[in-house]
Write a structure and sequence with these properties.
Layout: H1 5-18, H2 20-40, E1 45-46, H3 49-57, H4 64-80, E2 86-87, H5 96-99
Helix pairs in contact: 1-4
Length: 105
């Protein structure tokens, strides 16, 4: 069964409301990695999977709809803050935890 975009939005927003601390920690981790990339002159194409894995390691459930919502919301909010970030599914792109050392928090 395919879920609609409105279902993804509803589920994603509910997740953020239910996990406000995890949302802020996630956003901060991505923002810090993007700033490090910018300082080093690297591109800011990121994979969401390492960040989702950090959430799962802390016992926070993230399904594919929520994962898609989080990547879109992070892109939107960080771009509004002037940070050139884009999430991609391609494994050939940068893994932020491998490239920049990542915060983990």
């Amino acid at each position: 069964m395919t879920r609609t975009a409105s279902t993804m939005l509803r589920l994603g927003r509910a997740w953020v409301r239910a996990h406000p601390d995890e949302w802020l920690r996630l956003k901060s981790s991505v923002e810090n990695d993007v700033r490090r990339f910018m300082e080093s002159g690297s591109v800011c194409d990121l994979r969401i999977s390492p960040y989702v894995e950090m959430l799962r390691e802390r016992g926070v459930g993230v399904d594919s709809d929520i994962r898609a919502y989080l990547s879109r919301r992070l892109e939107k909010e960080l771009r509004a803050d002037g940070l050139p970030v884009r999430f991609t599914k391609h494994a050939s792109k940068i893994d932020p935890l491998m490239k920049a050392g990542g915060d983990g928090e």
